[in-house]
Predict the structure.
Amino acid sequence: MRDVLMEIRGLSKTFHVSGGGLGRRAREVRAVRDVTLSILAGETLGLVGESGCGKSTLGRLCLALEKPTSGEVRFEGRNIFDLTNLERKAFRQAVQLVFQDPYASLNPRRTAGQTVMEPLWLHASDPGQVPEEARSVMRTVGLSEEHAQRYPHEFSGGQRQRIGIARAIALKPKLIVADEPVSALDVSIQAQILNLMKKLQRDFGLTYLFITHDFSVVRYMSDRIAVMYLGRIVELGSNEAIFANPLHPYTRLLHQAIPVPDPRAKRPGPLAVIDDHPAPEEGCLFYPRCPERFDRCRERRPELFERETDHRVACIRREEGL
Amino acid sequence: MTASHRQPLSATPLLEISDLRTVFDTPAGTVRAVDGVDLVLGRGETLAVVGESGCGKTVLALSVMRLVPAPPGRLASGSVVFRGENLLTLDRKRMQDLRGDRISMIFQEPMTSLNPVFRVGEQVAEIIRRHRKTTRRQAMDEVAELFHRVGIADADQRLRAYPHQLSGGLRQRVMIAMAVACRPDLILADEPTTALDVTIQAQILALLDQLKREMGTSLMLITHDLGVVAQMAERVIVMYAGKVVEEAPAQVMFDAPRHPYTRGLLASLPRLGTDPATPLPMIPGQVPSLYDLPRGCRFQDRCPDARQVCREEEPALLTPSPGATVRCWNFA
């Protein structure tokens, strides 16, 4: 049994957005709703969902880049929203982020070498060692010595993502939150980055929270998978369980919708009509789109429950054994 | 070279592109974004154009539409024959008559291709009124009918919406309504679902396929997503650094890809059945810069099968089997 590295308890985050226009009514966006989830040491936990489901907000909360509306996140036993300055420095070292768009997340006026050295300077015990450490980190991610002198615009997308990864692993973190790390990359480059991330995980014992909308990528990368819909985790289980036996109607819908790179594959049948459904106030959030809904789904909001060993789902149909 | 021999003699192709070269004159030199492309598209056919960013697939579509920004762009040579007319030599007025009527285009990001200050209904009606003699009222009725057909619920109300009031999926449906409004012969769809979630993507693809069948429209689908290709296309063209490197019926390309680049692309896809314990096969290196192309084959630096001849001479487009071509010395 793996140890728990990060524990998310009852976490919610609500944003208040001004309505715009003359009426100006503030609108609430409930990005994350009462999420409870553990990230185990050494695993890759895939967090999958469509745009606007709150997966990036959840990732940012795990990095303490956002303050939650309620709930807490414990890292090595301490609530990350309530750390002393010294503890926070250690936390910032232990948990790192890899962004989706490596171009937007690199300072265009710093060379690759400077970018990788910056976190090393901030946390260095021996500044004399920093340049050598940076070179070593860059070699680890497949960049050469001469790359250190170049600026972001001189790199291709794949190489820029390598710089982003080098920066993230420079301080030998325990947990890396990777938010759509390959979504902006071309197909032939995606595989290079995915392989690199797997290799780094083996070599350094990293833990990943791997956020993506791409089901094939999450399948390849993850040990366990959490499926998110409108701010809630609707299904959580091992990689095999989620793919061999998806339980939530939403997971099944996603499954069906993925275009398979084989012309013989069955095409997705007619899918439930989607319109801009507002999230229902009560009952299951997926109700308006659910092909399996029945009346009881409107009565209360389903909680995750263990339907099979290590496979949990939040669905009233499944609760009733259907 | 013309590609007409690939079509049965009885059927004149709807679109025939021969030796098309579209270049961009930049301070750093002339970039040949589309570098001698030949292709043929039959009536009612769906052709996918596949390739990575910068391979020239979008510029190819813009060239057909004559929408390449000029300068710096320039249609340097070749011909684009659509229903017997060479689009590259048409005058502006005639081209405007065709655009939106006989040929239409769907763009990747509907938010940037819809005008934010006009109601979406009016924008679609404008296309109809530009090409048909009809009153404003009649045009709006047609748009309501179109919205209904592309699956927009509450069509009558949605006509009055501004683009920002619609979700990405609905905006893309508006774009599709606009593209099919005049029942065109040809739709060019440039990454029509890339900005959308997979569940919405599945719906948009099903919708495109259905409309295409109903109207007998030909579809040129530009995408980097091989899953989308497999689902939609009858024939596939693979582009690399401005050139077509392989063309084949879709089933053939997925079963037995020939060009080392196509093989590499297909192998590197994480699939639902891929064993997570083994590393993904990958194409090493990166696409060469169009400013600095190597002599010989453009894929040589990344190719597992590169030989001496590949470094010296540009491979010709070879025909290894009927209906399939490949630009690779290994098939010579």
